[in-house]
């Protein structure tokens, strides 16, 4: 049995953290509710490190406030604007990216870490190498300790890094794109690629590509406590963590030495709740000024209080779909897949599940992407046609197993109800459907064991970039078969070639043409049936100003303020 040694320093640090991080569920102090803003959101998948969060799940808003990235996406376009990076250049062969970093950026001063220096290239090299699983600059033991048979610490880190999963970066195979990340000087980083890849910078602007403090990691590593990096966060963002009460709320306070314009609101309370109806009730009771992921069936109540409340909607970079498992012989039959598609009334799903806060998806790439188009302006070759579906399917005497993840997601707020509607439609077409409710852990175990014996499964994808590569590759490429992102287990070499061809072009128009070709192949082969593209929704008090939401659901608290004289 392996027993980890708890050092005296580690014990003191843990003891010091108890007042800040507790398992209790205290009330939010009244002084904070009077001098701050409360944001109600869901608690599922909460993490202080989005890098380790499941790809395709709803990203929580907290990390957007704590950390910065090298780049930000500009005005929902294909263009990027520097953040921690000040500028960059790409070599003529497209294989080397040189990033020039911003100077004078301070890390948070917290009870658990006091930085001795500002942000620099070491932080970028460490943060990127960590998700790549590469060795990084952690100190070695001295010679006498090595003679005792002790491993070098950077080898220990490497072993731990290989065990830690970074689902988003794994899904896009980032370690097969980036060969090395090195510091040329304290404020210059060089990223060497295996091959030209036009999507790299958009990945570095995603919600997952946050920058850690290398100095903080060194401190934790010296105490054999590197796991704390993901539990007690230290970043460069406009807000830092003050308190976290598990599954209850997070208190953020303003970063007084933030490198950009100081945020107007000093205290932010993130109220965590798994219940959509409960969040709406809190909002109406003025227990929170902003609420995310409200119960869309009750949004009509806002119309009765139009002067007090405002609704912010944004087209989302997301897709809900039904996947056909190509490991099952029946699902390899294109005629069956197309018949099933024609049997399903997707318009009724939009009405009964999303209450018209989503649109029927007739394409794979959402319209908000720079390579997307308005799906409502296009017909779908296998749209609802119950008569044709029955003609194709009823004499086959099919019995299919459909798995349903029993968790709500933004792209599917009611998966069980959606499964019932689909089962009803397929039953009318002559198909017997057995619905099985499963957990995410069960699904991942079946995928690891290569025993996922479903015919159909409800799935979806939430992208954190407007680049189509980060949308299509994780859910449809050969490299992600038997993983939780590619639930259809579909693999097409011609599709791969189109995606790869799109990456070597620096022309946005040329890339868009290739992605449209790839999309046409998917819609023809139909490994997944696109169902819905969902709008992101926030509701807020009318006295809150500066509420803006990205297609990824993020909101910048640093831009928020209250109307003068109001709270």
Automatic annotation (TrEMBL):
Q: Residue limits of the Solute-binding protein family domain? A: 80-481
| Domain of life where this protein originates | Bacteria
Q: Quote a single Gene Ontology cellular component term.
A: outer membrane-bounded periplasmic space
By its UniProt entry, which CDD domains does this protein fall under? PBP2_DppA_like
Which InterPro entries did the record assign? Peptide/Ni-bd, SBP_5, SBP_5_dom
Q: SUPFAM superfamilies given for it? A: Periplasmic binding protein-like II
Q: Please name the Pfam families in this protein's record.
A: SBP_bac_5
Question: Taxonomic lineage per UniProt?
Answer: Bacteria, Pseudomonadati, Pseudomonadota, Gammaproteobacteria, Pasteurellales
Q: Name one GO molecular function term.
A: peptide transmembrane transporter activity
Q: What is this protein called?
A: OppA protein
Ordered alphabetically, the record's keywords are: Signal
Q: Which PANTHER family match?
A: ABC TRANSPORTER PERIPLASMIC-BINDING PROTEIN SAPA-RELATED (PTHR30290:SF28), PERIPLASMIC BINDING COMPONENT OF ABC TRANSPORTER (PTHR30290)
Q: Which GO terms of type biological process are on file?
A: peptide transport
């Amino acid at each position: 049995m392996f027993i980890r040694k708890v050092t005296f320093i580690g014990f003191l640090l843990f003891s010091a953290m108890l007042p800040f991080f507790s398992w209790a569920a205290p009330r939010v102090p009244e002084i904070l509710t009077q001098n701050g803003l409360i944001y109600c959101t869901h608690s599922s998948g909460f993490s202080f490190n989005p890098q380790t969060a499941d790809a395709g799940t709803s990203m929580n808003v907290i990390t957007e406030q704590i950390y910065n990235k090298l780049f930000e996406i500009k005005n929902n376009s294909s263009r990027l604007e520097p953040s921690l990076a000040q500028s960059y250049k790409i070599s003529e062969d497209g294989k080397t990216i040189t990033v020039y970093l911003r100077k004078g950026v301070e890390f948070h001063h917290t009870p658990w870490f006091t930085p001795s220096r500002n942000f620099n290239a070491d932080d970028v090299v460490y943060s990127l190498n960590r998700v790549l699983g590469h060795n990084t600059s952690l100190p070695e033991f001295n010679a006498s300790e090595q003679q005792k048979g002790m491993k070098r610490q950077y080898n220990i880190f490497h072993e731990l890094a290989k065990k830690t999963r970074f689902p988003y970066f794994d899904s896009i195979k980032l370690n097969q794109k980036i060969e090395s990340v090195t510091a040329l000087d304290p404020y210059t980083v060089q990223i060497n690629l295996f091959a030209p890849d036009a999507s790299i910078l958009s990945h570095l602007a995603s919600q997952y590509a946050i920058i850690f403090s290398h100095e903080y990691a060194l401190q934790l590593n010296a105490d054999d406590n590197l796991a704390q990096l993901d539990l007690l966060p230290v970043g460069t963002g406009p807000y830092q963590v003050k308190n976290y009460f598990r599954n209850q709320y997070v208190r953020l306070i303003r970063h007084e030495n933030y490198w950009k314009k100081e945020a107007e609101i000093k205290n932010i309370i993130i109220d965590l709740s798994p219940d959509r109806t409960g969040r709406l009730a809190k909002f109406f009771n003025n227990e929170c000024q902003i609420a995310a992921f409200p119960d869309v069936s009750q949004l009509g109540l806002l119309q009765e209080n139009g002067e007090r409340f405002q609704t912010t909607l944004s087209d989302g970079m997301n897709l809900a779909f039904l996947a056909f498992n190509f490991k099952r012989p029946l699902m390899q039959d294109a005629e069956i897949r197309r018949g099933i598609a024609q049997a399903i009334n997707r318009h009724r799903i939009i009405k009964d599940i999303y209450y018209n806060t989503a649109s029927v998806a007739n394409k794979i790439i959402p319209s908000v992407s720079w390579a997307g188009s308005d799906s409502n302006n296009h017909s779908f070759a296998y749209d609802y046609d119950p008569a044709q579906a029955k003609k194709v399917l009823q004499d086959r005497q099919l019995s299919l197993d459909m798995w349903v993840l029993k968790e709500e997601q933004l792209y599917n707020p009611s998966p069980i109800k959606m499964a019932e509607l689909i089962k009803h439609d397929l039953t009318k077409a002559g198909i017997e459907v057995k619905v099985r409710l499963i957990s995410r852990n069960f699904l991942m175990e079946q995928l690891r064991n290569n025993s996922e014996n479903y015919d159909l499964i409800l799935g979806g994808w939430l992208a954190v970039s407007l680049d189509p590569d980060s949308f299509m590759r994780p859910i449809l490429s050969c490299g992600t078969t038997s993983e939780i992102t590619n639930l259809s287990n579909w693999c097409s070499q011609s599709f791969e070639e189109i995606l790869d061809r799109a990456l070597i072009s620096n022309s946005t128009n040329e890339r868009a043409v290739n992605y449209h070709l790839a999309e046409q192949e998917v819609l023809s082969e139909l490994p997944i049936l696109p169902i819905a593209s969902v709008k992101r929704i926030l509701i807020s008090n009318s006295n809150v100003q500066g509420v803006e939401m990205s297609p990824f659901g993020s909101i910048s608290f640093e831009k928020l303020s209250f109307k003068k004289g109001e709270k």
